[in-house]
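Batch manifest, entry 17 of 40.
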Amino acid sequence: MARAKGTKLIAENRKARHEYFIEETYECGISLVGTEVKSIRGGKVNLKDSYAQIINDEVFVIGMHISPYEQGNIFNRDPFRNRKLLLHKYEIRKLKTRAQADGYSLIPLNIYFKDGRVKLLLAVAKGKKLYDKRHSIAERDAKRDMDRRMKNMD
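Output type: structure tokens
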């Protein structure tokens, strides 16, 4: 069977853009077993409270929930197990230096299929303070209000 071309978004971590300033993003592969891939094809994945961590010069995503596949029986794995991310060595070194900086975290933004393979978009992010979140909300509301007024003028 031929592989599907293009990208197809599976799940998105919407909370991440509200909670963090996104500095840099990396596309990485993810090490999965067959039943996890089938479950992801069905859209049964949650990135809400997940983050990535570097352990022994390998990057792992922690807290990502992939629901067990219904027909998977004995082949299903733990839904919350740590999954290894596939990156080049130079990318891991760069991520390690950025993640060790004060206030920076590695946050998964979304998971998608790219040419038939599961990919994860990993971001180097800095946490927002409460006043930053309020400022972002105020900017978004002002932009929405201006767009609404411009539409009514036409």
